[in-house]
Task: structure prediction
Amino acid sequence: MWDIPLIGTYHFKYNGKGNYFASLGTSSYFMKKENYSYLYYVNNQTYNRSASYPSTDQHLFALVHISGGIEKPIGKHLTGIIEPYAKIPMAGVGFGSIELSSFGVNFSLTYKQPKRK
Result:
């Protein structure tokens, strides 16, 4: 599966301690193959089945991305970023119309190259 995001970010005014930002966007899914594993119970017995489906599904704008965070300087050329995010489904995707969602936190470091003299 390919996840193609389109996200816009707004940076709020710098307050001397850090730079705050908010992001909003969408994501499209392009699927090549789907693998499913089913676990179910019948008459107190457990059954496990697997299935694989070739797929050419395209799910345009299937997710909404919402995030916000803070960017703080760590030294002269290094910046740390903490960004909690949520990916919320707008529709089901794939053979089973699964509503994929995810939540998490991105941590990143940015190195700003010194200016040449």
In short: The beta strands are 2-11, 19-30, 33-42, 45-54, 58-73, 78-89, 102-111. The chain has a mean pLDDT of 88. The first strand starts at residue 2 and ends at 11. The chain has one domain: 2-111.
